[in-house]
Design a protein that fits this description.
Largest sheet: 2 strands, antiparallel
Order of helices and strands: HHHHHHHEEEHHHHEHHHH
Structural class: mainly alpha
Mean pLDDT: 90
Radius of gyration: 21 Å
Low-confidence stretches: 371-376
Number of strands: 4
Strand order of the largest sheet: 1-4
Shape: globular
Length: about 375
């Protein structure tokens, strides 16, 4: 049997990563089998609701990994990543709306129902091309990425850092939320985009399609995780971490700090957009509430609870907090926000390295081998 490459050894050389990969692979295989292979009357059957819920957690985990890359490794506390997540979701939602055609309430072959209701006469220019999946997929990547490049170039070029950067990222997502709430923007206003029928010609509610979306979310999470891990182990990743620890010293050595921060921020935004695009067809709706600043703050809490600067900790935090949210909002909905605030305070005071940091107290972490690509 062929021996693993040094790079693969490095990517999988961390205990937390090995556990993450094992759980992800088992989940991606077992959940579809339990959903498709067993009838609903069987105790082994996994309902479509549960599978969709797990798939939603996976998209949240990918979003958390994106935030951990910029916050945990680069020191950029972004409170606006919900904007990139929502923009990716809207790009996918626009494609799904174009697939409805004459099956809508008003049976217009071109205009979505909300445009007919608002007496729009023609499709806006920015909706052109969204009837093609490849174009929508391209926009899922380009729109968040380009916005992050423009925003980051302006912010990092002006050397805006710390709490000031956090505030303007939150202002960005709040401004987008207000814009998307407007009916005349052409994105469905308060109701957003919903009532999806097909994706790539397949019924979006069919069991096989739901399974395909679930598996796609698992693959995207795995690829996004390893892309971020590769970045953090690379030479550029070492520079990024040096910027986090001492930006002024890194700049004094001669590195172009703004360039490193910019490409990491843009790549993180692209990951968030992909997460949003996978989220929308599974939950069946996208509306301006996804832009809410509280959503971005919650993502930061996921990362803090799981363990900032570990990637697998971000995944664990996203799953744990959202599972708790699903439980508490159903059992005692008025208690959830207090519980979330208390959780963040407790983690900040007593678990600064998150849940995975607590685990490391009992099981010491092994020293990671460096890949050939980053050795001197």
């Amino acid at each position: 049997m062929k021996a693993p490459t040094p790079l693969l050894n490095s990517l999988l050389g961390e205990r937390g990563t090995q556990i993450f990969v094992s759980v992800l692979v088992i989940t991606a295989i077992l959940v579809p089998i339990l959903h498709l292979a067993f009838p609903q009357s069987s105790p082994l059957h996994l309902s479509s609701y549960t599978m969709t819920l797990i798939g939603k957690y996976m998209t949240y985990a990918l979003l958390a990994v994106a935030v951990d890359l910029v916050w945990g490794y680069c020191g950029i506390l972004s409170l606006g990543h919900a904007a990139f997540f929502a923009l990716g979701g809207y790009a996918m939602g626009m494609y799904l709306m174009r697939q409805i055609g004459t099956r809508g309430v008003y049976a217009d072959p071109v205009l979505p129902d909300f445009m007919v209701f608002l007496n729009w006469k023609e499709l806006p220019w920015f909706w052109s091309g969204f009837d093609m999946f490849w174009f929508a997929a391209l926009m899922v990547v380009l729109v968040p990425g380009v916005l992050a490049l423009i925003f980051g170039w302006l912010a990092f070029r002006s050397r805006v850092t710390g709490v000031y950067l956090s505030i303007i990222t939150q202002a960005l997502t709040y401004a987008l939320m207000l814009a998307f709430f407007r009916n005349d923007m052409g994105f469905g206003g308060n109701n957003g985009l919903t009532d999806f029928k097909d994706i790539l010609g397949f019924n979006i509610n069919a069991p096989g399609t739901r399974v395909a979306l679930f598996v796609a979310s698992a693959i995207a999470l795995g690829l996004g995780y390893f892309a971020c891990r590769y970045i953090t182990l690379s030479r550029a990743g070492r520079v990024v971490q040096a910027i986090r620890d001492s930006e002024s010293r890194t700049r004094f050595i001669g590195y172009r700090v703004e360039s490193y921060k910019l490409w990491v921020f843009a790549f993180s935004a692209v990951l968030a957009g992909i997460a949003g695009a996978l989220y929308v067809p599974q939950v069946g709706i996208i509306n301006p509430s996804e832009f809410q600043p509280i959503n971005s703050i919650e993502v930061v809490i996921w990362v803090a609870v799981g363990g900032r600067g570990t990637l697998y900790g971000a995944v664990a935090g996203a799953v744990l907090v959202n599972y708790a949210k699903s439980y508490f909002t159903a059992a005692v909905p008025e208690f959830w926000l207090y519980a979330l605030g208390a959780l963040f305070v407790l983690v900040t005071l007593f678990l600064p390295q998150g849940v995975v940091g607590l685990a490391d107290r009992f099981v010491p972490r092994r020293r990671e081998p460096e890949p050939e690509a980053v050795r001197a």
